[in-house]
Amino acid sequence: MPKRDPGLHNDITAQDRDRLVKQLFAEPTRSLTFPFGGRFVVVLLADAQTIRFSILDDDYPLSTRESMALVDRGQNGFGTLDSVVVPVDGQSTEAPVHVLEGDVREHFDKLYESLWRQVLGVADYRMRLAKGKLSADAFADAQAARARLRKRTPEQKEILNICAFEADRANFGAARAAAAPGGAPVTAVEMGGGR
After folding, report:
1. Are strands 66-72 and 31-36 parallel, antiparallel or unpaired?
2. Nearest to residue 72, comparing CAs of 98, 46, 99?
């Protein structure tokens, strides 16, 4: 297991999230593409209250298929994972996180937090890189930010692989998720984990 650098894990504030939302709103596509754990992710401001992190499959950029997505509906401000979208039999299936069992939900919450940390780091790097054209110090700051981003890759791969395994193993019980709104959390076995 990769060792964690505590300097890479400062708390993400509401102001950090708001800054990203403003940046996304200013983008013509309302999205940013960024690297994550050897893959690419598109963060999209779908509407004023919905952010979607789409993790693209291994074939990107040849294909823009989504292997998984994490959705935040921003009901109390952004920062809480509301649902996970995975392909099941070729169709996107969205499961609210409240139907996931504790360990599975915890893994997806960690992935969600790691995605936020990475996109904020990438936005910071791009800002520093733009300033780097004006001064050597700013360029050095950008290179240090780049090194910090790269240090995260092993940890990102690990959580991404765990979540991909959980999604594949559980299929999020498409039928169970629809049948159990507000019910008790669904376990991996109940969701088809035994297949």
Report:
1. unpaired
2. 46
Alpha carbons 83 and 81: distance in angstroms, whole number: 6
Q: What is the largest CA-CA distance in the chain?
A: 59
In a domain, 182, yes or no: no
Q: In which region does residue 193 sit, left (phi positive, over 0), alpha (psi from -120 to 50) or beta (all else)?
A: alpha
Q: Indicate whether 22 belongs to any domain.
A: yes
Q: CA neighbours within 13 Å on the CB side: how many for 71?
A: 19
187: in domain: no
pLDDT digits 0-9 by tens, 99-157? 888 889 999 999 999 999 999 999 988 887 887 777 888 888 888 888 888 899 999 99
For the whole model, what pTM was predicted?
0.79
User: Rg of the chain's alpha carbons, rounded to an integer?
Assistant: 18
Number of helices (H) and strands (E), helices first, in the chain? 5, 6
Label the pairing between strands 91-96 and 83-88: antiparallel
- Give me the domain span that covers residue 95: 12-175
Whether residue 55 is contained in a domain is answered as: yes
Number of domains in the chain: 1
